[in-house]
Amino acid sequence: VKYGYMIERPFWIKRIQECWEDAPIVWLAGLRRVGKTTLAKSISGPTTYLNCDLPIVTEMTAQPELFFQNCKTPVVIFDEIHQLPDPSRLLKIGADEFPHLKILATGSSTLAATHKFKDSLTGRKRTVHLTPVLFDELPAFHQTSMLKRLYQGGFPQVVMRAHKPEGFYREWMDSFFSRDIQRLFGFRDFSKFTLFFEYLLRQSGGLFELSRASSELGISRPTLENYLQALTISHAVTVLRPYHKGGQKELVKTPRLYAFDTRFVSFFRGWNPLRPSDYGHLWEHLVLESLQAHVPERTVHYWRTSTGLEVDFVVPRSRDRLDCIECKWDPRKFNPEGLAAFRSLYPHGKNIILSPLEPATSYQKTIGTLEVTIANPLNLASILI
Predict the structure, then answer these.
(1) Residue among 94, 84, 76 at smallest CA distance from 58
(2) Rounded CA separation 130/111 (Å)
(3) What DSSP letter does each residue of 183-211 carry, written as one string?
(4) pLDDT of residue 115
(5) Per-residue pLDDT at 183
(6) How far is CA 100 from CA 50, 128, 198, in A?
(7) Which residue, of 121, 177, 192, 337, is most buried by count of CB atoms within 10 Å of its CB?
(8) Residue 258 and residue 237 in contact, taking contact as beta carbons nearer than 8 Å
(9) Maximum C-alpha span of the chain
(10) Which residues are 353's β-sheet partners?
(11) Residue 48: beta bridge partners?
(12) Predicted TM-score of the model (pTM)
């Protein structure tokens, strides 16, 4: 909300509506302050909205059958539902006994990730992962500067400000630990968790070795494994596995980790102000968010050889067809050596270069022996179909 009106986010509203066509429950997941509450409240038509942080909501839903019987609207929204004592029972009764209702439940973590969710609600729900503000949503947020988006990040209330808010990022880290990580996963050591999280933010976009992190931070490997699992579940970190078919020079185990927001990455790397050499690295993060939003059903990998040849993102289309996505701030500086090496092993699929500098219309180009589509993320969904 800005100056009294609501920002429309039709892409996400459509995604929620499509999920309701398949299942009665939509689980809207995403990090704290990424915009879940505002999006939920923007759903058109009569809705019953409940803020599950409020103690009165626990009393109202203590008898689920009676609660749903008295619902007078076709849509029921449970915001931050993990704050309730038994959220999975409430959702299960709503889906099974009141199939005419559409239910939207929001939370910072994946459903069934914590001890509170005793039932995964298989077959009754669909999940929508709300990312930070996407490339194609910037005009709706009265923002046209891609460099500003990279620098200030994609949290809605920050995107719309003229300047980055001092103190926001440290305050967010404190709130994330106390309200999400500590409550949902039971971790108690704030200093160790934060030390590891900030380590990942500084390493974001690079290869990650757990043993090395354990050695450098002085924290046990099992503890870091638990922290990483919690960060992945809560969408604070995305883990990409290398694509491989057993080639001798292909990386087969080492994952690549991406943190959730460009401003947090630049903040903890000390990139203030941004330099042109920083643009491409942060641009990869925005492209990954676009992939997560537009093709959520497809698994994203990366590809790399022991000699350093690599492809930014590999998205399998079918058994033998692999789409390759290269992220380039300036596509004129694209080096095709890594992509050519990949295609020598896996010849079938689309080759795509995504750049924010390109026009809205994609076009084809031959680079060396490769046929490449050059576009910006506005074209991404149609290109990958």
Answers:
(1) 84
(2) 14
(3) HHH----HHHHHHHHHHHHHHTTSB--HH
(4) 56
(5) 80
(6) 19, 21, 45
(7) 121
(8) yes
(9) 67
(10) 326, 374
(11) 76
(12) 0.92
Name the DSSP letter for residue 135.
Answer: G
Helix, strand, coil shares of the chain, percent, nearest 5, are 40, 20, 40
Identity of residue 251: L
For CA atoms 25, 379, 264, 232, give the dihedral sign.
positive
What phi, psi does 306 have (nearest 5°)? -65, -15
Alpha helix ranges (H) inside 101-259: 146-152, 156-159, 168-176, 182-185, 190-203, 210-217, 221-233
248 burial class (0-12, 13-18, 19+ CB within 10 angstroms)? exposed
Contact of 316 with 335, CB cutoff 8 Å = no
Query: 238 and 260 in contact (C-beta within 8 Å)?
Result: yes
Q: For strands 237-240 and 256-259, give the pairing.
A: antiparallel
For the segment 270-287, what is each residue's pLDDT rounded down to a tens digit? Answer: 998 999 999 999 999 999
- Cβ proximity of 107 and 29 under 8 Å: yes
Residues of the chain predicted below pLDDT 50? 1-5, 112
139: preceding bond cis by omega (within 30 degrees): no
Residue 4, pLDDT score: 38
Distance CA 7, CA 38 (A): 9
Q: How far is residue 216's CA from residue 273's CA, in Å, rounded to a whole number?
A: 28
For residue 112, the model assigns a pLDDT of: 46
Instruction: Write down the pLDDT at residue 1.
Output: 40
Listed residue (133, 120, 103, 81) closest to 19, CA to CA: 103
* Cα–Cα dist 369/53, whole Å: 58
Rounded to whole angstroms, the Cα distance separating 94 from 65 reads 8
Residue 169's pLDDT is: 81
Residue 32: HSE in the Cβ half-sphere, 13 Å Cα cutoff? 15
Residues of 176-198 as b/e, b for ≥16 C-beta within 10 angstroms?
Answer: bbeebbebbbebeeeebbbebbb
Cα 363 to its chain centre, rounded Å, is 28
Contact 339, 366 (CB under 8 A): no
